[in-house]
Design goal:
Length: about 325
């Protein structure tokens, strides 16, 4: 495996990025030419654009980019399968065609200049290099609070995750082959990749504003993403249910003891508020616990069907 002048595949998942791609093409063409000129990457390096079932003219734009420059390769998925599956499709293509792959967002909020530092760390022996935000000063308070809370909560739940790292990362061919061994349908790459192993490094960068379009990860989707990550990599919620059940059992014995004492001393007047609150509290806890268990059962159900994570409809270099 070449450490100097490696073949790079830059993997860019795309969903309704018609407005952003013209700017992305301009920036990436310049950056790739610069890297090739400086002998940092091979002249055979490519940019892999994965269309995740976009509803706009994203695929037409990708085909135009390929026609204008053979460096751009388009992969069209037959159906929208989500960001993680689209990213995986691009990475698995890169595994068979490149020495290293670097994944970035189509809106280029990930600074392309971080590629230089990633390549330097790769040459020094790293098989995986995580792109990590150096700060969140450009975010609103709400965005910063919820995003950092997401990483802290994931760590608290036992998920092995790199703080302030999304999906901007370098992976060598060896690391990609390791990733290919993971067969689960419920993909959470931010949790899977740290579990692969090998020597890793971190490259810090400032995240840019979107050049066009809107965020593909609003709060609702981020919460869903967090639930998927937790239930795919941690059994702590199930253990918490067991702890809650034990605590409720202990409290019930205390209430029973209290009731017997009240009976013996002749004070048997029951409190209506206490009874109603107890019923609602226990009912709410039971419903929550059933919901958490249901999430895990749903994950098991999806995994046992062994359905394909994505289906490729077209590849422009074929």
């Amino acid at each position: 495996m070449k450490r100097n002048n490696p073949v790079l595949n830059l993997v860019i998942p795309c969903y309704n990025e018609e407005s952003a791609l013209p700017y992305t093409e301009k920036v990436l063409t310049k950056k790739m030419a610069e890297l090739i000129e400086n002998n940092q990457i091979s002249k055979n390096s490519k940019v892999i654009l994965v269309d995740d079932g976009s509803k706009d003219k994203t695929w037409n734009t990708i085909m135009d980019m390929h026609e204008n420059d053979a460096m751009y390769i388009g992969i069209k998925l037959a159906h929208n399968k989500g960001h993680q599956n689209a990213l995986l499709a691009g990475l698995m293509y890169a595994k068979d065609h490149a020495d290293i792959a670097i994944s970035m967002d189509a809106d280029l909020q990930d600074d392309v200049n971080v590629i230089d530092d990633m390549l330097e760390k790769y040459r020094s022996g790293c098989e995986i290099v995580y792109g990590v935000r150096s700060s969140r000063t450009k975010d609103t308070f709400f965005k910063r609070f919820t995003a950092e809370g997401f990483y802290r909560f994931m760590s608290l739940m036992g998920v092995d995750i790199v703080f302030n790292h999304a999906d901007c990362r370098l992976m060598s061919k060896v690391a990609l082959e390791g990733l290919a061994e993971y067969r689960e349908v419920n993909l959470f790459l931010r949790g899977i990749v740290p579990g692969i192993g090998y020597q890793t490094g971190i490259s810090y960068y400032e995240r840019n504003e979107r050049v066009a379009g809107s965020s593909k990860y609003p709060l609702k989707k981020m919460l869903s993403f967090a639930i998927d990550g937790i239930t795919s990599f941690s059994v702590k919620p199930l253990r918490m249910i067991a702890v809650i059940g034990f605590i409720i059992l202990l409290l019930s014995f205390l209430v029973l003891l209290y009731s017997l004492i009240m009976k013996l001393i002749g004070n048997t007047v029951s409190g209506w508020t206490f009874i109603v609150c107890s019923i609602w509290l226990i009912g709410g806890i039971q419903t929550l616990c059933l919901g958490i268990i249901g999430e895990y059962i749903g994950k098991i159900y999806n995994e046992t069907k062994h359905r394909p994570r994505y289906i490729i409809e077209t590849i422009t270099d074929k």
